[in-house]
Design goal:
This protein has 6 helices and 2 strands; from the N terminus they run H-H-H-H-H-E-E-H. By secondary structure, it is mainly alpha-helical. About 30% of the residues are buried.
């Protein structure tokens, strides 16, 4: 039976498998991610952490779902920019190195996860005719919609519990 918790498990497992595939593509297949890919990877890590928080306790579920929603939105935004850079419709550039703001140089602290020496325009990776940022865009849209639906079903279930 597909209930809220099963959907959360499915989404969290999917985020974990996608992150594993990104690392496999980088370290085994030799595809070097660019800085924009690293930002999309961070969004996926946020989705994974939000899913874990949602699964940890029933009353933490809305917090985790909000984290998933925000991270999916940020991943969608970054993937959209990356797609624009690749097809030339966005005049934005590919940064030389990731900027993690107040967190400092995380790419030097965890280089196997957050270092992005690749080129943002490189579209050598394709599956079913779509590039990696196009797949991330599609995946983030689904996480965005799924987290919103689960958030509102959570609110409805709380309303039912309180009405008893």
């Amino acid at each position: 039976m597909l209930n809220q918790k099963n959907f959360l498990w499915l989404g969290t497992l999917l985020a974990f498998l996608l992150l594993c595939y990104a690392l496999y593509s980088q370290h085994i297949n030799g595809f070097e991610p660019c800085v924009r890919c690293i930002y999309q990877r961070l969004a996926l890590i946020g989705v994974l952490l939000g899913g874990v928080i949602s699964l940890s306790h029933y009353w933490l579920r809305p917090v985790g779902l909000i984290i998933v929603f925000v991270c999916a939105f940020l991943g969608l935004s970054e993937a959209n920019t990356h797609i624009g850079v690749m097809d030339g419709t966005v005049s934005d550039f590919c940064p030389f190195r990731p900027n993690f703001g107040f967190l400092g140089r995380l790419d030097k602290l965890i280089p196997w996860l957050l270092e992005g020496p690749g080129d943002c325009i490189d579209d050598s990776w394709k599956m079913l005719g779509f590039t990696m940022p196009q797949w991330v865009w599609f995946i983030c849209i689904n996480f965005l919609i799924g987290s919103a639906i689960l958030f509102f079903t959570f609110l409805m279930s709380v309303k039912k519990r309180l009405a008893r």
